From TrEMBL:
Keywords: Signal. It comes from Shewanella algicola. Residues 1-28 form the signal peptide. It comes from the Bacteria. This is Secreted protein. The keyword Signal applies.
Length: 200
């Protein structure tokens, strides 16, 4: 009887422990990687860097043959704003925000007069721990709706990826039949670009 009682107590404790583990969100213990990634970019605050297309470029795509500059321009404890300048086009700003469950990437697109583009603030949230050097952002539902409303059905499976290493920052867009990458040289800061449109 004592042996049966002991076994029953063991299994009860095991079930309680298992339930506790299941109740914890899968990424609750992984916020360290998100924080480290965020802080790695934040250390570049105030600096700008030149980039080059390393995959997926083509003539007439709006990026090839133009000066590509990223500027880690605005930094707080929870949000980073990084304009991505393409030649004389200053319409794009990456917005990286810390959330309760990880990181969020949004693309803030503006017109020259500062007004919002009809396709703006699209992106997604991290869905896994990632690493201190790489995070992926699958497209979110809100962005899918916006893409469909504006005839961009090819973008509804977008996954954006950012990687930061000692010498390189990489911005990557992936979807079926599309793998676009720009790599920025972090060893050579460049002159600061103009203020991005709409962020005076």
């Amino acid at each position: 009887m004592a042996k049966t009682s002991t076994l029953r107590g063991y299994f009860t404790r095991a079930l309680v422990c298992s339930a506790a583990l299941i109740a914890v969100p899968s990424n609750a213990a992984n916020s360290v990687q998100h924080q480290q990634f965020f802080e790695s970019i934040a250390t570049l605050c105030g600096q700008a860097f030149a980039g080059k297309i390393t995959a997926g470029g083509s003539e007439g795509d709006g990026f090839s043959g133009k000066a590509l500059i990223m500027h880690v321009r605005e930094c707080s404890d929870t949000e980073l704003k990084v304009p991505f300048h393409v030649g004389e086009d200053h319409s794009r700003t990456w917005v990286i925000t810390q959330t309760d469950t990880g990181l969020r990437l949004k693309h803030d697109h503006r017109h020259k007069d500062g007004s919002e583009d009809k396709v703006t603030m699209y992106g997604g949230d991290t869905r896994d721990v990632g690493t201190a050097n790489m995070q992926s952002f699958p497209v979110d539902d809100e962005s899918i709706v916006n893409f469909k409303q504006n005839g961009l059905d090819q973008s509804v499976t977008n996954v954006w990826q950012m990687m930061i290493e000692a010498h390189t920052f990489t911005y990557r867009l992936m979807r079926e039949n599309r793998d676009f990458r720009v790599e920025f040289d972090l060893t050579k800061p460049v002159a600061l670009p103009p203020v991005p449109w709409g962020h005076e």
